[in-house]
Amino acid sequence: MSLSYSATAAVTRAGLYRRIWRWHFFAGLVCVPFIFSLAVTGAMYLFHRQIDDLVYAPQMLRAQASDNMQQPSRLIAAALHSYPGRPKALNLPEDDRHNAQVDVILPDGSTLQVFVDPATAKVAGTIAEDQRIMTTVKHIHSLAIAGDGGKVVIEIVAGWIIVLMSTGVYLWWPRGRRVGVVSIRPGAEGRTWWRDLHAVTGAFSGIVILFLALTGMPWSVFWGANVNAWLTAHDLGVPNGMWRGVPKSTLPAGALGELPWTQQQLAVPESDDPHAHHKAVPHEASANDYVLLSHSGTASPDAVVAQLASIGIDRGYRLALPRDPRGVYSAIRSTGRTEDQRVIHIDQYSRNVLMDIGPERIGAIGRITEWGVSVHQGGEYGTPNLLLMLAGCLALIALCISGIVIWWKRRPTGRLAAPERRNSDQLARGVVLIAVVLGCCFPLLGASMLAVLLLDTLIAALRRRPHTNYQ
């Protein structure tokens, strides 16, 4: 009886192993191009500031470091004098090495980033916003370059990374073995060496890769958007109570530029002035009279910047300018450590602070999510954070390459060589439960898993037909 039971258990384990290996194989084969792209572009974007400084040094870096600074309105006027248009935002540098950046909307609707020396108000150069190298890298990373359809694909792939790491752990589990588990076995060659490299790399980097996949989800087009909305609705992100007495526009905050994740779907407040439609606003002014805007009844950028400095926001932020007579000034600090992130909306007439949102005013789950996003980008803990996330990206690249090499060395010429599926192979209840939970937590992943299951079942049924081979 015991021998029979042991034999049955062994057959069951072998069948489960084959099923999990098959799913790991197909998921990896289909997702490898996207995962490789995510890893390469992610590694690059971790160092986007350093790359920008290297590529765009003439525009971004000052000829001579200085702590002197012209009035903000002078910097904006200098940009408009050289490149007429509508000023969109002023980016004040966080150190004395960098130029200020004025975003100007040109007559054709495109945005030009104009870099101005803060000490001399001289234009150092320009970059077209949509042609900036790291902007392109970011769009490739999220597949935004392919539109919403590309974003959906990346969300599904991120979900499948979780599946790949989970199934990979099962396939790697020692089961009494010692060789090829935590180190490449001595003397290993060919496919064995690549298989050991794949297993050991996954074992040591799995937690970091899972973290990258999970903390990348907040940017996703379906899961991220819906979770963001749910957190806000339940006061777990930015509390709805902060809107009491504050007029709300139809402009989404995301239009102001890069924002902390919890605020990307919020509306922008409105300035409150009964005669607003009679007054000039900054984006309608020419370079010659931009510095005189305070006489029109609106607060000048100089006054707003001074006001922000008085409450501790003195450099290293983006000041989005009012877009129309109801618009507001919005000071945005969204990079670096979570505790330093802050968004302040100021009435353009009264200079009243309409909303001041820092991490202490965000719900617990929202703060945890913001922390995860910051660590994902390498901004929370300095250089060690950057290097750890870089290690995760490099490990993903190694897993992609080694996985393809293993398959290529294993496959007979002209065949796919997928792991065999037998009709008797069953999935354990625990595995099914994990799959169901993942599918419910990440709906696009769940839908794709169902599609794969149906396809695999269909292929198995067709293979049982005589004279048909889909292996």
Notes on the structure:
This protein is of the alpha+beta class and 471 residues long. The chain has 3 domains: 15-47 and 139-218 and 382-463, no CATH class; 57-131, Nuclear Transport Factor 2, Chain: A; 238-362, no CATH class. Helix content is 48%, strand content 11%. It contains 13 helices and 10 strands. The chain has helices at residues 2-46, 48-55, 57-60, 72-82, 133-142, 148-172, 190-216, 223-233, 301-310, 364-376, 382-410, 429-441, 443-463, and strands at residues 86-92, 100-105, 111-116, 123-128, 248-252, 267-269, 317-320, 328-333, 342-347, 353-357. The strands form 2 sheets. The chain has an 8-stranded antiparallel β-sheet with strand order 4-3-2-1-7-8-9-10. A two-stranded antiparallel ribbon has the order 5-6. Helix 1 (2-46) crosses helix 11, helix 6 crosses helix 7 (190-216) and helix 7 (190-216) crosses helix 10 (364-376). The chain is elongated, with a radius of gyration of 27 Å. The two termini are 36 Å apart. The model has no long low-confidence stretch (mean pLDDT 88). Keywords: Membrane, Transmembrane, Transmembrane helix. InterPro entries: PepSY-ass_TM. The chain crosses the membrane at residues 20-47, 152-173, 193-214, 386-408, 428-455. This is PepSY domain-containing protein.
